[in-house]
């Protein structure tokens, strides 16, 4: 058989299979007879494409008919056509969050939902999770060392300085109203600010590294969506030979390994000389050493990518969503500006580098606003994603048994809008909702943006609650301080309020295509 014939076969097989598959596809009935299965009515469109953009109506129906009564329901699973997605009510929350990874696995669920193994993307490792959960969070409150030298500023102050630098670098001159894609701008700012924490001084100001991070993130997202849409699961292995976006993932990953490999060798040598850094690379070196594992340049690149991807896009999208909500509530924007001034005076905060974790915590109205924006406009309909691992399945205390490989989630968006959980005004935006709860209960730490609770599952719960939520909280606040002190912002002509969100399967994104108008504030 000629090489041309082989290439044609490799190209045509997935294409023909995909076309045939889509032509005859209709979501299958649930193989879980004990759980109600929701789909669109027979007289309506029940195609794959409808599940792409209209899952919210099914989620609302399922929540009202089953979840609020303490019952699970199942629906079409876009990442596994043969096994439905099971949506669990809150009564199962404690059992889910306390289950070990060997019984209910978040990493396996993530790999299945992102098809990361099929596109050459990074897999979640215990070492990467440890770095974000322990090392990053620890350093937010402490001093940071560069090359063994302890610094007077904490990590928050360093990030504040990087935030100001990023604004100067990426915001165009705005003497008059200037159109800026706020999402792309926030991506760049967040990438540069967090780079100091995650890769350290060698690469945090490198344009090439920033291009690698943003390029890899975009390529991985495009590849994940594209391969899922274009390739049957049995033929996804061909994507690395045929798909441009997947090839981009491998190309960028290789270059990242080359850059990081040089630093890795340098750090190993410096470690012998007693020079220790406080950043993601050093923490990963230590984590692998503690686990008795060898850390290669490629593995270092993959761990840096998984940490970065998990933070940059979600945090930038959250910040954009908050900005839209803030622009629709100008009176609250002015109150937050006043709060920033008061906190600066109270804590003696000077410039962008003077912020600490304690002084940022004083921005209580800003924090409450951010949390309310997240409640009303979450990035995911579902959280608490897990996959049943054991061959015998998973048995809940009430007798519900789920078979192996079943994927489960909890209805984050609907929980956030539930009047029984959040009051009669649950569907209304109340910027001071969480500030009042702090004052009424006296529990200041319970209701801040990064806190987790049974009635707010945006960050998940239990051992797999988002480990980077504290870093995201501080960076978003620093970004808003810089924005509100230095710029005015408004919608472009023809846009009067928050643009509609973008829904895809169970993901929700603020509209990232709108160019907002920015203007430098006139200093008196």
From TrEMBL:
Heme binds at residue 466. GO terms for molecular function: heme binding; iron ion binding; monooxygenase activity; oxidoreductase activity, acting on paired donors, with incorporation or reduction of molecular oxygen. Its cofactor is heme. Keywords: Heme, Iron, Metal-binding, Monooxygenase, Oxidoreductase. The keyword Metal-binding applies. Transmembrane segments: none annotated. InterPro entries: Cyt_P450, Cyt_P450_CS, Cyt_P450_E_grp-I, Cyt_P450_sf. This is Cytochrome P450. It comes from Podospora fimiseda.
